[in-house]
Request: fold
Amino acid sequence: MNRFDYIRPASVPEAVAAAAVPGSTYLAAGTNLLDLMKVGTMRPERVIDITRLPGLDHIEWLADGSVRIGAMVRNSDLAYDARFARTFPAVAEALLSGASAQLRNAATVGGNLMQRTRCAYFHDLASACNRRMAGSGCDARDGENRLHAVLGWSEHCIATHPSDFCVPLVALDAVAEVEGPHGARDIPVDLLHALPGATPERETALAPGELIVALRLPSEAASFSGNARYLKLRERTSYAFAVVSAAAALEIEGGLIRKARIALGGVAAKPWRAREAEAALVDMPASTEAFTKAAELALADALPSGDNAFKIELARRIVVRALNLALEGTPEVMPALPASPFSTTAGATHVA
Amino acid sequence: MSPEIASRTTQPRRHGSNSGQPLTRRDGVLKVTGRATYAADNHPEGMLYAVTAISRIARGRVTALDVTAAKAHPGVVEILTPANRPPLSHDPEEKMLPFGFRVEVLQNDGVRYVGQPIALVIAETLEAATEGAALLNPQYEVADARTNLSNGDRFDTASVGIGMPARTAHGDIAVGLAAATHVIEADYVTPAQYHNAMEPHAVVAEWDGDRVTLDMPNQAMALSCASYAAYFGIPAENVLIRSPFLGGGFGSKAILNGPQILAILAARLLKRPVKLALTRAQMYGPVGHRGHTWQKLRIGTDSNGRLTALHHHALCATSSFDEFLEAAANASLPLYESPAILVEHEGLRLDTGTPGPMRAPGEASGSATLEVAMDEAAVACGMDPLEFRLANYAETEPGTGRPFSSKALRECYSEGAKRFGWAGRPIEPRQMRDENGFLVGWGMGTAVFHCPHFPAEARATLRADGTALVETAGADMGQGAWTALAQIAAEALGLDPDQVEFHSGVSSLPDGGIAGGSGHTASAGLALNNAGEDAIAKLAALATADPASPLFGAGNIGVVARSGRLHRLDDDGRSESYVEILARAGQAEVIGTAKAARDQEAAAAHAMFSHGAVFAEVKVDPDLGQIRATRLVGAFAAGRVINPRLVRSQYFGGMIWGASFALHEEAITDHRTGRIMNADLAEYHIPVNADVPSLDAILIEENDPYVNPLGIKGVGEIGITGTVGAVANAVWHATGVRVRRFPIRIEDLIIGWDTSRK
Reply:
């Protein structure tokens, strides 16, 4: 990899100041960044190591029932925090369905929000990629694209966002707390990741130098704790990115749906919140029929970006399945294969 | 550190025969404590790091390299390009028999596949060498990439695999098809797959004058020494290869490759040790792969479900400049009786690296399609797949009528079926559900693999203290050669394994042959056995000629070696220890040697194969199409088993590989560029533990007096065969969807799937 300056700030303001210099990038666990630097997709001149910043590794419960998670909290620590997993079970399930145990032990909350697409053309320097190099073109468009986007894509980019974690976060109105050269601000996670449009190189709403310091889940999100699931379709049982995935959360009263939350993963350049589908479920009886209609609405605007029409049908089916699983209720204990369609299979005792 | 040091105190003391015992690996403690030294763990004083710059086009020419920029990078010492590469004594375009391939060692500016080395950067650090390679910024003259059936050049070939005939015909296939009541005809595709051994190809090369020491993982040390010697113009004995451990090889470490030759050349040029280790991505090109195949099968059956014709055609991809064609269709030769069998191969030239032998070469791809076709034929006949295979059981080798040296396949079928619970399986698909509503399917396949035997040599030294040193240049790729070979030697010497020091994995030892073709235990094992017997014979000669020995005069009767003593054959009470015999003779040691090879007469008279039967259960999500192999049961007959723990482990590994072939593995090529778009372990999927929840391997007893004097066949590769078809057939049985392209994907099951059929 290229030669770069390694900077280890002692405080968030120091970090933000260091990152204000062009060519800088933040380093957390490095589970994504270091791979990208090794293949040359990223060649930062300055690497700002934030792993030693004080105060970013706490899970803090606020008086109003919301929770504030420091950006440096490890994925495993968050998923196995008993209160968190009980309160936001779909988030814990999504975390445990991602990557491998070793990666989850290292990867951080903030890093997960910032992970880059797995599009092979983004990683292959010999390929044209508007996301990696603005204006160079998109070789995925007519390339190997069976796993690419079916929602919100443009002629300029058909990449998907790979995160599992972000899918239930978007469904539950999570908010990222950001500090930057011009002070602090909140960004809803749903607005953090950008659709490509004509500027796929602008991947997030963050301004240069801005740093995610924490993540908040609002207290209202806790009202779904009894009926919330994350479901992820994979081409092997573990350690694979989603072909499609869905987070579903319901608040049910007297057989009627009072509130519904639906988000899809693996279908777009951002975790895809399906608000119209949610609205269509409100005050409806919880039934497969209603869920099927919601799924139709969720995918109403879907279009294949290549050899991937099957993903649209799969996405519809996974929405129905996830809603049905949510209706059945959050499992008492985390399934041995979190988020897997096979998590109910008797004998499926392997921890993924 | 070598394994016998760690193993001395860890093995339980055994009495009597130790072969057949499930000893744990002698090198196990070293490996789990990180003390086993793999090639890239070596760091001689003054060592430099080499990194290859690789081509990102599939065909054309390198027109420019920014050597100035790369050389200016701090730490970069030298850059080899076609312009300055020192000469080699062997033409890399000339194939070196018996296993030589054409290699790319900067002989010109041509590019013939993606991933080909186009320069070698040598630097003081790995980081500097890597960045130096990145700074070369190659410019190309690009020619169109030939990457698939539509643009590759088809060609006729006389041979496939390594020297096998491309076409074999028994009987008249047209007559057989005309006589059939049912004919199934189907096309199948198997993808390119890459070995992906956990340990990358690495070498640490250090020259001393015209002698070179190579720390490298190597499956064929003696052959490699001769080949490197030819490239560098030195005698073969001047090349020392040290390969105590391999982190997997699967065939990819038996053949020389360009990057390693270049690193050795750089060490000679710069007069300093040089290390090169390929990155994962660099392993998709110059170090072989399992080639893409397109296969057609036609099977004719009569009204009793007996084959009337078996026609297997395989179109096999190779590179534009060399030939290694998967002998896929040959999988249809040894298994099923038919009055007419025709197997034939064609080649297809693509702009890829040359394919090479990859665990069960030929058989894996061919068995995959044959066993699915047999399943389709069984369905056409309305027969249970196992019943169908039994109806077509070959009592002698099909076509030739030669007897099998041994064949306990019937027992494999029956024991496997019993353990799996095959009886009562519905013939129709989509009949079974589990308690959670998942579709359940059961499928089976027959496993078969040939039993090659390579010439090998060994030495056994009985020492004055009653212990022994046995030596052969064997290769342990993880299969347990350090343990099983030592067991064979200990058995021959009448000693416990912990009294036997075993030296292996260094080319200066007697030639242990090739660790390939599932033939290493038989080949090196026979040499060790014979060397041990030779040492015992020499010791016996000392004792029986010595009037002071209780064995005096027993020369004609003979003696037997057991627990460190020689006993008279006719009187167990008269015995003497090795220590006493050597002490009285005043000898520090006796040395036995052996060169062993197969009895060619027995080989010509018999068909020699390992056999097995694999039964698979899969579950499929009825809406989402995700597939999981939930149970695999294999029963295998492979002659004598030296160490059942290691053998079972080989079967497990093979069966998991088979499930991987069926459901996961595939190199995805961008057909516009020839670039492999998933050249990493995150995206090139192999199974994780959760993908194969339950495995069972049954060892069927088999005594084979012909295959070799030890009766050992081979177990390293057979587990893949049979399994691929078994899993694919189970997917059909679960879903009713017949997928004829590997790996089976979710969309194969979802597209056109009528969900109302639940």
